[in-house]
Design goal:
Layout: H1 2-17, H2 19-57, E1 62-66, E2 68-70, E3 79-81, H3 86-95, E4 99-108, E5 112-114, E6 119-121, E7 123-127, H4 131-134, E8 139-142, H5 147-151, E9 156-159, H6 161-167, E10 177-180, E11 183-191, E12 205-209, H7 210-216, E13 230-235, H8 241-256, E14 266-270, H9 271-314, H10 316-324, H11 329-363, H12 379-405, H13 409-414
Parallel strand pairs: 7-12, 9-11
Antiparallel strand pairs: 1-13, 1-14, 2-3, 4-7, 4-13, 5-6, 5-10, 8-11, 9-12, 10-11
Helix pairs in contact: 1-11, 2-9, 2-11, 2-12, 3-8, 9-11, 9-12, 11-12
């Protein structure tokens, strides 16, 4: 142990004797480690920001809207629009086996909400009670609608946070009444703010039971008798999302008598498929950024190998003298190996501490871009950086150390 301490002391003295050279070499390694961690941390910031944005919508949610179907059976030259009906929703709800839950949605934007304190226009959604198991609609005060509300067609409403501010400014809303196109409704719940700065459509929506919506505010227009706007659903698990979508398509196509594989018949928004696609992009980004960081780290390690070879060349006479005085092959090998490894690990440790501190400071700040969280230290990348440092330290110390240890004392003393 005493010999090792003495070797470390000699190594520090040697590095201190060449301060500028040592600083530049250490800076290369610290920069390489910092670049690796920061680049991967930036990629993870993008990933977590996108995941958080999707969580504002809901977990594993899927949307299906109508498209166009052939105007003449078997013909692809002409098309006509069609509408989902409440019967389609009931058929899918009762017959589909790959769906965890599903809700029909009736959406109207021409209904005016009036209270004793103000009035506003907002989106009104008629939904099934299970809608809160599909979409993220956290109730802050009061409660969400239940099956009894829906079955009895109760005139109850759950109101978004932003809309409540407009029609009940500074006043309690739960238990109060509002008029929706002149029809009185009781407010039974208020949604908590959803999304950063409340930038989510649900904050300005009014939700009511779908049976109540069907009776009082059906969709307007010709050929829209008992139609719904779209379907929102979740598969049993995310691995079955494609099967769930195909099952829904098949049931609706059978009801309307067209081929379920018709490309234009449905417009789907599959957040699971989107999340998987984004995850692949971020995995590729992490891989690319990681390679860039490792290349930078490798260049720093090459710098240390170079500086240690120069050190061996400058200290050739010293090595010969030490060998002549009895220093063994192992003593010389150990000294130069420790110098290279110490220089590498100490430099990398500085880079790790500085970048870790920077990320900790950034984490205290609010996110400054939509869909982007502040960079964070990724344990796997930190472990990879430490492992790479260890390998770089061995390489940077071992090769120059072996070259120094193999010098013959007579030849070394002969050097000027």
């Amino acid at each position: 142990m005493r010999t090792l301490v003495e070797i470390v002391r000699q190594s520090i003295s040697t590095l201190w004797a060449h301060k500028l050279r040592s600083f530049l070499t250490m800076f290369g390694i610290a920069w390489g480690v910092g670049s690796l961690l920061l680049l991967v941390g930036l990629g993870e910031g993008f990933r977590s920001g996108q995941e958080r944005n999707m969580a504002n919508l809901g977990k594993d949610i899927m949307f299906t809207f109508t498209g166009r179907i052939p105007g003449v059976e078997g013909s692809s030259l002409s098309g006509r629009t069609y509408h989902f009906t409440y019967a389609d929703y009931v058929a899918v709800r009762d017959q589909a086996h790959k769906l965890r839950c599903i809700s029909a949605v009736i959406n109207r934007e021409d209904i005016r909400a009036v209270s004793d304190y103000g009035s506003t226009a907002g989106q009104v959604f008629g939904v099934a009670p299970v809608y809160n198991e599909i979409r993220n609609v956290p109730v802050d005060v009061g409660r969400w609608m239940n099956d009894r509300d829906n079955a009895d067609r109760r005139r109850v409403a759950v109101v978004g946070w932003e809309l409540v501010k407009n029609i009940f400014p500074g006043r309690p809303a739960v238990g109060s009444t509002i008029l929706l196109n002149g029809v009185q409704f009781e407010i039974i719940g208020i949604l908590a703010k959803i999304g950063r700065e409340g930038n989510n459509g649900s904050n300005s929506r009014i939700f009511m039971p779908i049976e109540t919506m069907r009776g009082l505010f059906p969709l307007k227009g010709e050929n829209q008798q008992d139609t719904i706007s779209f379907l929102n659903y979740r598969p049993i698990n995310r691995d079955l999302h494609l099967e769930a979508k195909d099952e829904l398509h098949t049931i609706i196509a059978r009801n309307h008598q067209f081929d379920p594989k018709s490309e234009d018949a449905f417009e789907d928004w599959d957040t699971i498929e989107g999340a998987q696609r984004v995850a692949k992009i971020f995995d590729a980004m992490d891989g690319f950024l990681g390679v860039v960081g490792f290349v930078t780290l490798g260049l720093g390690a090459i710098g240390i190998v170079n500086i240690m070879l120069i050190s061996v060349s400058e200290r050739t006479k010293e090595i010969g003298l030490r060998k002549a005085l009895g220093a063994t092959h192992r003593n010389i090998l150990t000294q130069f190996f420790v110098e290279g490894a110490f220089l590498t690990l100490f430099s990398g440790g500085i880079g790790l501490v500085l970048v870790g501190g920077l990320m900790a400071l950034l984490a205290m700040l609010p996110p400054f871009l939509e869909g982007f969280d502040t960079p964070r230290l990724v344990p796997s990348s930190a472990a990879g950086a430490i492992l790479s440092l260890a390998v770089a330290g061995v390489i940077a110390g071992l090769y120059p150390a072996r070259k120094a240890a193999l010098l013959e004392p007579v030849e070394a003393l002969r050097q000027e």
